[in-house]
Amino acid sequence: MGLFILRRFGVMLLTALCLTFVVFFLTNLYPNLEKLAKTQGNQRMSDEQVEAWLGNRGYLQPTLIKYGQWLGVAPGFTKTLDDGTFVGTCIRPGLTEETTPRFCGILQGEWGYSTVFKDEVGTIVGKRLGNTGYLMLWVLILMVPSALIVGVLAGMREGSALDRSLSTLSIITTATPEYVSGVIFIAIFTSSTVGLKWFKGTATQAMDNPTFENFFLPVLTIALYGMGYIARMTRASMTEVMTAQYIRTARLKGVSFPNIVVKHALRNALIAPFTVIMLQFPWLLNGVVIVETLFNYKGFGWALVQAAGNNDIQLLLAISVVSVFVVLVTQLISDIGYVYLNPRIRIS
Q: What is the pLDDT, as a whole number, of residue 347?
């Protein structure tokens, strides 16, 4: 088991380096850098002025050197301009040529400085990630138990009226995008003209003071979309398990149907849905962009939209690192969970 985890960590490290390099390369293409120069400098800058601005700040160095500086494995770029302005890899107010560390990258905890929010990227990511984490927690609390219950009930008796009804409900929720269900919920439950006005307040207020009235609709919008997929996978797995030979043997022995479901079928039926549930974490982290934008909930997805729309390169890179880390860690947990849920994998 230890060797398996060690190999997985090696693959995770290699994957993280490859993915972050791809994102770094794409965000540092010259058109993006040109847009950054004109945004931070002057929109009327000539091509020569843009090239001079980028060259003075180290953006025209070879990509591998810049990537090493961003990681913190290569010495950072520092320069004092003719007007006395100090620029370098660590773009933060108050730094001087004497106080700037030689290595200044994410390995040293230096995430850069946001050109949009005018704050350290690490502070921004931490705050927005906390908001999305709280949203994810309540989505998982609502989504996972509901999906498992629906999937198990539908899969217990394949082809029954209950199975067809719950399967249809699962397909409808999965086929309805969040921006559709979110708009419908807003129109029905919050509008004062045509709606019921059941939920008062906004999701923006929920960041400081979350209540049922201002926080439930975004949670419900995300949970409904993900619930159908988990329920369908659970139903398919439960249907397959209920036709297994050991289930038939238990029935012939006179074991009651509830005991067959709970004690014999449920654990084996949860192996496939477990992977699907773990895959929801990366989706919840980055897939809530639409919902957070729709409800104006300033979380991780909202920060991604702001960074992409305003060409905030340092913030985009930090968000990509966090996203890659979450994906790889959840996949590792999924593989380890597989081992404990399925004894055949553990023996092999």
A: 47
Interior angle at CA 284, CA 302 and CA 117, nearest 5: 20
C-alpha–C-alpha distance, residues 307 and 321, integer Å: 14
Per-residue DSSP letter, 87: E
Do residues 131 and 301 lie in contact, with contact meaning Cβ atoms separated by under 8 Å? no
Segments making up each domain of the chain, as ranges:
2-108, 121-347
Helices assigned H by DSSP within 2-120: 2-27, 30-40, 47-56, 63-71
**pLDDT tens-digit map of 273-327:** 877 787 787 777 766 888 888 888 888 888 888 888 888 888 988 988 888 888 8
Residue 87 phi/psi, 5-degree rounding, is: -130, 155
H/E element, 217: helix 212-242
Angle between the N-to-C axes of helices 121-156 and 212-242, in degrees from 0 to 180, rounded to the nearest 10: 50
Answering whether pTM is above 0.85, one says no
CA-based nearest residue to 289, from 212, 222, 196: 222
C-alpha span between 259 and 279 (Å, rounded): 30
In angstroms, the CA 338 to CA 109 distance is 33
State how beta strands 78-80 and 86-88 pair: antiparallel
Whether residue 29 is predicted with pLDDT greater than 60 in this model: the reply is yes
- Average pLDDT value for residue range 248-269: 77
Q: Which CATH architecture has domain 121-347?
A: Orthogonal Bundle (1.10)
Q: According to the model, what pLDDT value does residue 21 have?
A: 92
Structure tokens at 212: 């049922």
Query: Is it the case that residue 231 has pLDDT exceeding 50?
Result: yes
